[in-house]
From TrEMBL:
<protein>
    <submittedName>
        <fullName>Exo-alpha-sialidase</fullName>
    </submittedName>
</protein>
<feature type="signal peptide">
    <location>
        <begin position="1"/>
        <end position="26"/>
    </location>
</feature>
<keyword id="KW-0732">Signal</keyword>
<dbReference type="InterPro" id="IPR036278">
    <property type="entry name" value="Sialidase_sf"/>
</dbReference>
Amino acid sequence: MNKLRPIVLVMILVATCLLVSTPANAFGPSVLFAPSGDCNRPYCTTYAKSVQTNSGRILASFEDNNQPAQGQTLPIFSSTNNGQSWTKIAAVADTSPRRWGSNWTNPYLYVLPQAIGGMPAGTVLLAGIASPPDRSGTAIELYRSNDDGFTWTWVSEVAVGGGEWGSANPTPIWEPYLLVANNKLIVYYSDERDKANHDQKIVHQTSTDGVHWGPVVEDVAMADRALRPGMPVVTRMANGQYLMVFEMVGQADTPNNYKISSNPESWNASDGGTTIDHGGSPFVITLPNGRLAYNSHGSTDIRINTNNGAGAWTPVRTTMPRGYSRMLQYVRGTGRVLILSVEGCRTGRRSCSGRTTAGTTSTGT
């Protein structure tokens, strides 16, 4: 997590053309979510994430501080028309044995492409950060849904960290990202528990059943302990190799870097990668045509790479504003990509407009 940059507050979902360098002609937006009343944190809504289930339904979740910290839940919104309209179908409460009482932040949604343990292919997973209401601890908790996101069951606890900054033990963990590879479920995340050596590093843990988790493995851990690599996102490219993008807080303008590995469990942790752009909070996906689509907080553009990470990352203009933790979601059957973005302003009470909206346009993929 980047503790240096303000987090913006409005979420917008729009798709953009990925084949030509002309502005996208998005239609919409339609409202997904609009906060009302006070928020329990200056960042009222942030970390919007989505997934498309095997039925074609699109699910979205986000950190929603427009509710009391005690009993806070991760909302689940659903769209059955490719993002044009949305309905809240669930609120995932902290039902883990820890019972801290707040499913707080950093939701990540994922559909299993194969069976993992007792969970069949097509199971929808939700990883997120649970915390006590005073944010004195953090834990990555994993939930599952077998009915397209309407009901959720706790599966396991991946890892436990200390509290957020300002707490008595500020050694939190953040930003889980899920991937299945090597017949394992991998959870990558940002880790602040090794303060003697690294202010923050990127690590992962693996499981063959989603319940029992292996040891912590370093993926990006810099010799300069003041650097804070974080917000990992990993995609399998068309050539079978894996590409990880991450931000490098602590360097000028917050570079967004990438590195490539043939094994998603081995990343040469001392390698800080190659810079794509600046501004933090990168995200990348592999499109069906093999191209990589990438964006970050630093620009309104999407960048396209046509050579499995090598060579140029070509900017493509969009009508979208910049956004913190801006998500890209390819929509099967339409050839469209949704951008989920959180943009707006900071305030200690209400988030300016705080609306979550949606719109789409063809990508031509």
